[in-house]
Write a structure and sequence with these properties.
Oligomer: single chain
CATH topology of one domain: Rossmann fold
Radius of gyration: 19 Å
Shape: globular
Number of strands: 10
Strand order of the largest sheet: 6-7-8-3-9-10
Low-confidence stretches: none
Mean pLDDT: 86
Largest sheet: 6 strands, mixed
CATH superfamily of one domain: P-loop containing nucleotide triphosphate hydrolases
């Protein structure tokens, strides 16, 4: 997305209006908490005995971009599934936007957005229809949904795609549609599960730029899972490296790399803290 085109100018104006709406909404409804997310010894063991998550503890500050980095099968998706009330923990505690995810899951869901790898939406639906559905599910009136959808489609520079069938859109465009739909109720925390999985480098860069703008101007707390080291390095103020259901290292990308050596990469960090090469861990997952 360019910075000086008419579309970009319209997107900037629409984002400013969304900021105004979001501030008004949060003043009226938000339970203020120092940290957006507080996790204490969170665990998930499935009925077959599989320990997907084994006692994770972490904190995410309001407005932060926090990454959970690791290979497939490390416990990343299960972790954000528990934080997003999609998976019930079997141990520990978690609070999101100041609310316990087990005691008050409905209140948590009012305050979060969730952009998944696969949306499960009918390919014959349009972006406008998807956003209307999402807004109505969150209790917004039809007029309010339509107004917000128009603004979000402009922010994502998707106005020309609003009436097209999802099945006709590229992977990168569908990801932006999913992001727009996940923001229709203006959540304070946005969970993203592998947000650029399978996308080409240009599409990935576009998603990264969009997420930067959302966090910087809307004040959304971003929590994303990824197995792309460059994505974690580029997007996240802090990272938790997860392996076999536990956090093995946590810190800023720069601090994590410095803890290993002056020229270390995040791949080197993973090897240092797990004893395994990251690509080998991905293949074994």
């Amino acid at each position: 997305m360019t910075n000086s085109s008419p579309a970009a100018n319209a997107a900037s104006s629409s984002l400013n209006e969304l900021v105004r709406i979001a501030r008004t909404q949060r003043i009226a409804t938000e339970r203020r908490a120092g940290d957006a997310i507080v996790v204490e010894n969170l665990a998930k063991t499935y009925p077959d005995g599989t320990e997907a998550v084994r006692g994770i503890s972490l904190r995410v500050a309001s407005g932060e971009s926090f990454g959970i980095l690791g290979p497939n099968g490390a416990g990343k998706s299960t972790t954000i599934g528990m934080l997003g009330t999609l998976v019930k923990p079997t141990g520990g505690r978690a609070r999101v936007a100041g609310i316990d995810v087990v005691a008050e899951p409905a209140e948590v869901r009012r305050r979060i957005g969730f952009a998944m790898q696969q949306t499960g939406v009918d390919d014959f639906a349009t972006p406008a229809e998807l956003m209307l559905l999402q807004g109505r599910l969150h209790g917004l009136g039809r007029r309010e949904v339509r107004a917000r959808a128009e603004l979000l489609l402009q922010v994502m520079e998707l106005e020309n795609e609003a009436g097209r069938r999802l099945g006709k859109l590229s992977g990168g465009t569908r990801r932006r549609v999913d992001l727009a739909a996940s923001l229709i109720h203006l959540p304070t925390v946005l969970f993203l599960d592998e947000p650029t999985e399978g996308l080409d480098p240009r599409s990935r860069g576009g998603i990264w730029d969009t997420l930067d703008r959302l966090r910087g101007q809307l004040g959304v707390t971003l929590v994303l899972t990824t197995h792309y080291m460059d994505e974690g390095d580029r997007l996240c103020g802090r990272l938790a490296i997860v392996d076999r259901g536990t956090v093995v290292a946590e810190g800023t990308p720069a601090a994590l790399k410095a803890s290993v050596g002056p020229d270390a990469s995040l791949e080197d960090v993973y090897l240092h803290y797990t004893g395994r090469i990251f690509e080998d861990a991905r293949r074994a997952a």
